[in-house]
Amino acid sequence: MEPYHDRIREAVVQALSPSSRKALHARILAVIGWAGRGTAEELVFHSLGAGRTDDAARHAQVAGAEALQVMAFAKAARFFEQALELGHWDAEPQRELQEDLARALGFAGRSRDAAARYLEAAEEAPADHRRRLRLCAAEQFLWGGYVDRAKEVLGEALREVGMRIPRTGLGAVARFLALRILLRFRGLGFTERAAEVLPPREIATVDVFLSAGTGIGMADPLVGSLFQVRALLGALRLGEPFRVARCLCVEATYRAAFGGTGYRRAEDLLARAGGIFERLNSDPGRVLHSLGTGMSMFQQGRWRECLDATTRGREIGISRCTGMTFELNTTEFFRCHAMAWLGRLAEARRGFDALVADARERGDRHTVAHIVGAAMIPPPLLDDDVERARADLEEARASLPRGERDLLAAYTFRGLAIASLYAGDVPRAARWSERLSALLRSPVVGGVKIIRIYAADIRAGVALLRASKDVHAVPGARRPVRREARYLRSFGLAWPDTIAAFLDAQLAALDGDPVASAEACRIAETRCEAIGMKIHALAARCCRLSLSAPQSDEVAAAYGALRACGVAAPQRLVAMLAPAIVTEPTP
User: Fold this and answer.
1) Choosing a second label site near 476 at 20 to 30 A (CA), which of 354, 356, 367, 586?
2) Domains, in order of start, for the chain
3) Angle at 518 between CA 516 and CA 520, to 5 degrees
């Protein structure tokens, strides 16, 4: 018999004495046991009600395992926690439960909690197993953005096998170059072997090197690439095809990040990896390949291809894969960034807001810092909210690893500089620009080409903003802006070339030649449209029309198009992008 309404059930239960409730739970347990029809979750509930905590712990363990199988990761974690709290376990079963809990927490995206549980499980584990659990903990700390803690735990585990993380940038560079030379001479060939015939310890080591290469690389690309090369060499030596292909995808993202001939090499590596994943008919592999493709395209400013790849990976991951929280969050991160560059600001904002809310709940500092700093424009500025943008960026800055010398710091300084340019605050913009440029002298950040492009754009923006506010600064602005325009063109990529064309337009405006400036704006607009940079294309159109037909209805229509994209104060945004042309923002 089932009560019609919960309040009826609650009233009946409340009327029972504690001893009666306990007896009824015991009778229900007996009936369920006799019929063999109760679920593990029901057995937990009634065992607790009957005061049989040891039985409840055993059933909670089973319920957790069942929840894990059906991808109910948060539910599985709750049951495993309950089993640990209620039961009186021997050392080995307790450690296994802690590992199950850590695994469920990791799948649920609670990286920091998962890492803590792995470390608890490692305390009483045998030496080899303890090292593996520490490596798992380091992996989870990395995925949550706790880079300093991850390096500490990873260093402890590596020291046990005679390895260490380089302490200096020069040491990392030397080791990185040595491994690169080894990889070049060795080549990418391998003898295929099944994972089942390979030593589990060696597989685990490759997996952790790869996780370190991915996780550390989000903050320290130099050390991250060092671990990535180790992972790739190890995977090729073992010959397990899925791991080889996965390492090739990550290697491609590093090659694209470091630029130059790396762009072409990245495409070759991704083609190899994609072929292996298709031969294996692996949906997780397709997600990894789509993510690697999206990240490589993003580094080159190929926004449309980035969006296509990440959308494809997201759809496959959500519908067909489990246990890929980090990969899917990273895929969504790049998908939203691509949408922003393509002018789909409303969709990008919804995605960013969801990612930030989820990341804050899980304690994932990587995602928060990257979104607020690496976005094309810090999201609150689209609402014309400078103070909120600065508050978000300062929050991200407070979570940076010690020393503020890594990639997360570079993105955060970039965001703070953009917020200052938007506010028209020359001293602040100059200060953050200088801090960003100083990071480029570090081997940790200096090799990442997209950061160099961002820094050049901001340096030019500071010079132009200063000239727009002080006529005496105009002569001194021309040389640095011309230098940055030449530098942007040296990358051989379409998107910095369009930024350089925008700088040409502003140089002409500084020279007092509105006709040449309008023509340069037209060129910038055409180039932006060709690669899908809609916001920049509309900004260039606003500038062109402001110079050539300032009283026409087309000017208002151009600003209206920006407003329709989700920009609350379009003239203020254009004034940030082109301060030498548009200097009087409206509310």
Assistant:
1) 586
2) 17-140 (1.25.40)
3) 70
